[in-house]
Amino acid sequence: MVVCGIDVGARTAKAVLLVDGAIAAHSIVRTGPESAAAAVAALDTALAATALRREDIELTVATGYGRVVVPFAQRNVTEIACHARGNQYFFPGVRTILDMGGQDCKAIRCDETGKVTNFLMNDKCAAGTGRALEVMASLLQVRLEDLGRLSLEASNGLVKISNTCVVFAKSEVLALARQGVSTPDILAALCDGVAERVKGLLRGVGVEEDFAISGGISKNIGVVRRVEQKLGTISRICFEPQVVGALGAALFARDFLGRNA
Amino acid sequence: MVTAGIDIGHESVTVVILHEDGTLGHATFVISGEVGAAAKLAFEQTLDRLGLERAGIHRIFATGIGRENVALADGHRTPMLSHTRGAHWWLPGARTVIDVGAEGTRVMRCDAHGTLTNFALNDKCAAGSGVFLETVAGMLDVPLADMGALSLRGSRRVVLTSTCAVFAESEIVAEIHRGSSRADILQGVHESVATKIAAMSRRVGIEADLVLTGGVARNVGVAQALREQLQMDVAVPEHPEIAGALGAALLAREPAGAA
Question: Are the C-beta atoms of residues B239 and B89 closer than 8 Å to each other?
């Protein structure tokens, strides 16, 4: 059985191909101005890694912000449900999930089957989302993928950024840089701020172990370590945390087919 | 009696010199460097311009975010007290004052004497602030002073849905790519700023007359959008950015320790 899950996010589109319940291929492509085109590109990239063709896919489920515009998907499922399901595939004991993407952040609780029991989401304010770090990386001329690692090179944890708002924090960051505060020290304060916001969201749903992190932010070791410290727990992160939503969508596709069979 | 008010904002210092019959003069300076020094320089330059001596000033009150760093002042008053007093002096019928500055919005209610009775404050979020408007001006390459008038020519095609200024920037980029005119985009921006200000004002409660102060009051697009959303007149003083300093100078007339 070949099924496909597509996750069209604010920043990237992801595809996962499941063959008989195992991940055959996955892909991540940048979302351009056309979400539908990004979804097609993600699918074709994933297919190119296999001997499969589009006709082989029995069912495609879409998720994410752009889930309704995926031209080749038959069904769509919310990203909350997909992230819970996708994480539960990797970590059957998972009960709490933090999913943090380019433009939002979700704290999700689920049961032993990966079914969502509660969630909180911030998609109204850029603080505490990947966007905050993107803005700051460009302001400090640091590559986004280096930001977390650099933040761990901070000399001490004494630098604080008092503004929550990303726009106001930008002025504060520039002032710190002008005072000669090192980039790692500033980045440490920024990662701490993001972790603090995330903690608030997680406390809102209640943290029960196992705790998993998915979405682009899980590649930022600076934020991950600080979230773990604040919660006093370790996190489980799968080999490709950006495709967990797409994987969840593919698992739902498999369910839908199984139910009809 | 001649008094002075100095208002230290996020981006500028405003000085007002007041005597019995009204303002003798006022001036606004962009802050560069240390706040206390900027205040001193602004104050001395204003006195120079008016041909006044420091000894001729009966009392100096500072207000605004940096009010405690003004060593030359005889005392300080909160921005809420100052803005309300300043706006009420300009328009004695004022019962609600909305001050929109670079980094925040304040909504104040006052009684017939211009005494503060209630207020709400947002300095946590850039949505609806002057900084956001400055960013937009830069993105669209429109002088800050021209934004308002240009937006009045918009045809109400652009609606921004983001609450957050950072996310709104992405929406604006999308509108630029879609080929929306600058006037339409600016109108959408001003509507969104006005929505945030109006929502906050409703939480405090609005009573006529309503006065809009602060640098953003100079933006006729925001003022017009606010009029439509609140469905009432919004009065804008000739110099909306001096209301805080004016209020501080008025409060400086009162016996020390009062207020």
Answer: no
Residue labelled with tokens 């302001």 = A139
> Which one-letter amino acid corresponds to residue A23?
I
Q: Which domain holds residue B205?
A: 93-236
ipTM value of the model?
0.80
Residues of A in contact with B164 (CB under 8 A): 124-126, 166
Contact (CB<8Å) A168/B103: yes
Residue B257 has pLDDT above 60, yes or no: no
Nearest to A135 among B125, B166, B177 (CB): B166
Give residue-wise pLDDT tens across range B28-59: 988 887 888 889 999 999 999 999 999 999 99
- On whether both B227 and B141 belong to a single domain, the answer is yes
Residue B54 sits in the same domain as residue B130: no
For chain A, the domain total comes to 2
Nearest chain A residue to B173 by CA distance is: A33
Among residues A142, A143, A193, the alpha carbon closest in space to that of A172 is found at: A193
Provide the pLDDT for residue B259: 47
User: Using 50, 70 and 90 to split pLDDT, how confident is the model at B10?
Assistant: confident
Say if residues B152 and B220 touch (Cβ distance below 8 Å).
yes
